[in-house]
Design goal:
250 residues, alpha+beta, four-stranded antiparallel β-sheet, three-stranded antiparallel β-sheet, 20% helix, disordered N terminus
Length: 250
C-alpha cells in the first residue's frame, strides 16, 4: 500500500451512492529524485460501489453505439462484454449485482460522462483505497495489510461476488480491494506523479486502478503487482477482472 499523510474528517453521503473523501496527501512509492514526495489530493466524491452489470446495461440501452455488437474496435477489443448473453442481456454469467468487467477505458469513461461524473485519478483511487475499515492510514493497520496481501497472492474465483458483500473502509466505500481491479483516468502515470486531470487531451497508454506508481519499498508485493498490471494495459483492452467506479469533483 502507498503511504499517506493525515486527512481531515467530514465523512458523509453527498450524492446517492457516493461519499465524500476528505482532502489529504498521496505519497508515491515510485518517483524520480526530482519528483515531489507528496501529491495533494483535494476532497472529492467517490462511488460507494463499483459499477455493476445492471448499471452498465442501463448505459448501453441509452447509448446504442456502446452495445457489444456495435462498439468500434478502436474503443474496445474483441473481448468487450463477451461474458454477456447479448447486447441487451447480461445473462446468468454476468449477474446484475456483480461488477461489470470486460469493459475498456473508453467505455468506462463514456459511462462516467453519461452519469455526469468522471473516472478517479490514480492518486485519488490510491488515497481512498489506502484506508482500512477503521482508519484512513491503512498502512498502520497490520490486519488490513495482511488481508490485502492475501487477495493479491490468491488465485481469483471465476465467479465474482456481488458488490457490497464485504465491509466498508473508513470512508464508507466498498470493494476497493478483494473484488476486481478498477480503471482510473490517468495515463503515463508510471512516469508522471502529478495530477493528470489537466492532461486529458491524450488518450494513449492509460492505466487501471489498484495501482501505485511503482515502489520504493521492495517488500510491498501488492504495489509491484498493481504497477505491473496497469502498465501492461491499453485503453481498448477488456479484461475479465477489470471494472471501474466513478468520481466527481466537489
Amino acid at each position: 500500500m502507498v503511504l499517506f499523510g493525515a486527512v481531515s474528517s467530514g465523512l458523509g453521503q453527498t450524492l446517492p451512492g457516493m461519499v465524500t473523501i476528505s482532502a489529504g496527501v498521496h505519497r508515491p512509492l515510485f518517483r524520480a529524485e526530482a519528483d515531489p514526495k507528496e501529491i495533494p489530493v483535494k476532497s472529492f466524491r467517490l462511488d460507494v460501489l463499483p459499477v455493476t452489470n445492471g448499471d452498465f446495461l442501463e448505459f448501453v440501452r441509452a447509448n446504442p453505439p456502446w452495445q457489444r455488437s456495435r462498439v468500434k474496435h478502436l474503443f474496445a477489443d474483441e473481448a468487450y462484454l463477451m461474458n454477456w448473453t447479448s447486447d441487451l442481456d447480461s445473462g446468468t454469467n454476468a449477474p446484475a449485482n456483480v461488477p461489470v468487467t470486460q469493459v475498456s477505458w473508453f467505455a468506462a469513461k463514456a459511462y462516467a460522462r453519461w452519469k455526469g461524473k468522471r473516472l478517479p485519478t490514480v492518486a485519488e483511487w490510491e488515497y481512498a483505497a489506502a484506508a482500512s475499515p477503521t482508519r484512513p492510514d491503512g498502512q498502520n493497520d497490520s490486519e488490513f495489510k495482511r488481508q490485502v496481501l492475501k487477495w493479491y497472492s490468491t488465485l481469483g474465483s471465476a465467479e465474482l461476488a456481488a458488490v457490497g458483500s464485504g465491509r466498508t473502509n473508513f470512508w464508507g466505500v466498498y470493494d476497493l480491494h478483494g473484488l476486481v481491479w478498477e480503471w482510473v483516468a490517468d495515463f503515463n502515470t508510471a512516469m508522471v506523479t502529478g495530477d493528470a486531470r489537466g492532461d486529458m487531451g491524450l488518450d494513449r497508454q492509460l492505466f487501471c486502478g489498484s495501482g501505485a506508481q511503482g515502489a520504493k519499498d521492495v517488500g510491498n508485493f501488492p504495489a509491484f503487482m498493481r504497477y505491473g498490471f496497469r502498465s501492461s494495459l491499453q485503453a481498448n483492452y477488456c479484461v475479465p477482472n477489470l471494472g471501474f467506479r466513478c468520481a466527481k469533483d466537489l
